[in-house]
Amino acid sequence: MGAVIPTGILGYEGQVIKAVRQDEATGKVTVICRRDRRHRPVDSKRGRAGPVNRWLRRVVRDVPLGGRPCEVEIEYAQVFLSPSCVRVEALPFVAPGTRATRRFARLVSGLCRHMPIDAVARHTGLSWHSVKALDAASLAKTVMPPRPALLSGIRYLGVDEVARAKGHDYVTLVYDLTPGENCGRILWVKEGRDAATLLTFLDALSPECADGIEAVAIDMGLAYIAAVQKGLPSAAIVFDRFHVMQMFSKVIRDCRRAQFKEAKKLDDLTGQQTIKGSLWLLLSNRRTLKDADQTRLNQLLAQNQPLATLYTLKEQLQHLWHQPISSADMAARLDDWCGLATAAKITGLAKFVKTVQSHRSGICAYADHPITTARLEAGNVSIGLLRRRARGFRDTEYLKLKIYQLNTPDKPSFLYANVPEPGPEARIFTV
User: Fold this and answer.
1) Are residues 235 and 261 in the same domain?
2) What are phi and psi of 172, to 5 degrees?
3) Using CA atoms, how far apart are residues 102 and 61, in angstroms rounded to an integer?
4) Do residues 136 and 396 make contact, with C-beta atoms less than 8 angstroms apart?
5) Within its chain, how far is the Cα of 62 from the centroid?
6) Residue 5 — very low, low, confident or very high, per pLDDT cuts 50/70/90?
7) Whole domain around residue 308: which residue ranges?
8) Which residues pair with 217 in a beta bridge?
9) Residue 190 DSSP code
10) What are phi and psi of 162, to 5 degrees?
11) pLDDT confidence bin for 203, thresholds 50/70/90
């Protein structure tokens, strides 16, 4: 079936639409084009016009037309540059290195933000590898990670790690924790989780930016501590309360498990029933519990002295971060708490107290620099969703692109043909 459609409506620059056909069996629409001979072919690499060596035809995917799958049969030129060099011209509406239009590539990339690659592949009729390649190419042009050398106005950093896949290679993440609209922004992603990895970022900062960083929130890993001490010697190290409480929750878990085994050994059915399924009660904030759950918690604490002691110590430890005091006062109160914990003589507490005391200055630095890794944990949740959606990433570079994409607002612009392509400043920066 022939058709007369203005080329500008469909955006096939340099082509003349000759016909639009529909396959009655599949419903697929094919737009048949011929190269507009008025447009002189240009070398795709050098941007230099040249004579046509020969005309070629190719079929590329486009966004659905009228709700139906759409292909475009295009004609393009092979440009003659020399007897030993011919090169295919670049068509403005075709994504470089693909058999897809730019808008179709943006559509695929937009779907990949919310769907697994295999689901997008089924949805579009492409192969898994084609979908991943289109998404990666689109992200390389659209995500805009900040350049470390150009950063400024940063007061606080947060550093964490995340696995490419469960139990596999790790990448280091650096977040901006400075209060304001950019708080939680991902500044840098790099393979590895040793001191050298983080130092690569810190050394790339300008002296002005590095001198302005007041504190860095990290966990208690020795590698990141060493990197911050070397790369930012004037910045305070803040050990996040989340990691401290996470370590203490392990003490509660171990004690609860031991108490349950002891009750089982003594055939104490009441004790077993009281302890069973109680872990979340011991770790939860009492104020968020329902009346029935509070009653059950009170019953547990009344019947089990070790768990009652640990629960009280947990509440006291958490309270340290909620008092508007100086770091010196916080250190004194932490010392008092360590004395109470040591006196309790509960298995696992002595090791925890030793760890806390060895990281005392970093824990109490929170009083002067009230930053936490809550933003990091929120970012890690988003990254975890990415990882689960993809069932793990085999390509670390692709993972880095997907992580940087989290900084980019999600807009439905990939559905429209008139969205301008990003300029050279949008290209990915790699260290």
Assistant:
1) no
2) -95, 135
3) 10
4) no
5) 29
6) low
7) 243-367
8) 158, 238
9) E
10) -150, 145
11) very high
Contact residues for 428 (Cβ-Cβ < 8 A; gap 6+): 139, 140, 143, 145, 401, 404
321-338 tens-digit pLDDT: 887 788 999 999 999 999
- Report the share of the chain in percent with pLDDT over 70: 91
User: Please, which pLDDT band fits residue 202 given cuts at 50, 70 and 90?
Assistant: very high
d(Cα 54, Cα 350) in Å, to the nearest integer?
80
Query: In angstroms, how far is CA 107 from the centroid of its own chain?
Result: 21
Q: Which residues contact 122 (CB under 8 A, 6 or more apart)?
A: none
Joined tokens for residue 114: 């919310």
Q: Say if CB 131 and CB 114 are below 8 A apart.
A: no
Q: Cβ contacts of residue 259 below 8 Å, gap of 6+? A: 271, 275, 304, 306, 307
pLDDT bin (cut points 50, 70, 90) of residue 168 is: low
- Reduced to 3 states (helix: H, G, I; strand: E, B; else coil), residue 211 is helix
228 and 290 inside one domain: no
Contacts of residue 174, Cβ cutoff 8 Å, sequence gap at least 6: 157, 158, 159, 186, 187, 188, 189, 198, 201
**In the structure encoding, which two tokens stand for residue 108, read together?**
């695929």
What amino acid is encoded at 16 in this protein? V
Average pLDDT over residues 243-256: 93
Work out whether the CA dihedral 284, 286, 290, 296 comes out positive or negative: positive
Q: Report the number of distinct structural domains present in the chain.
A: 3
Report the distance separating Cα 403 and Cα 160, nearest Å: 13
Q: What is the pLDDT of residues 59-71, one digit of tens each?
A: 999 998 888 899 9
Q: How many CB atoms sit inside 10 A of residue 227's CB?
A: 25
Residues 83 and 182 in one domain: no
pLDDT tens sequence across 64-105: 888 889 999 999 888 877 777 777 888 888 988 888 999 899
Closest CA to 201 of 222, 179, 230, 221: 230
Clarify whether residues 282 and 302 are in a common domain: yes
Residues facing 49 on adjacent strands? 42
The H-or-E segment that residue 185 falls in is strand 185-191
Report CA dihedral (220, 221, 222, 223) to the nearest 10 degrees.
-140
Name the one residue in this structure whose structure tokens are 């003490």: 251
Tokens 């068509």 map to which residue? 91
pTM of the model: 0.77
Task: Report the CATH number that the domain containing residue 192 is assigned in CATH.
Answer: 3.30.420.10
Q: Beta-carbon neighbour count of residue 356 at 10 Å?
A: 21
* Judgement on whether residues 282 and 305 belong to the same structural domain of the protein: yes
With respect to residue 141, please indicate whether it lies within any of the assigned structural domains: no
Q: Considering the domain boundaries, does residue 140 fall inside one?
A: no
User: Is residue 358 located within the same domain as residue 249?
Assistant: yes
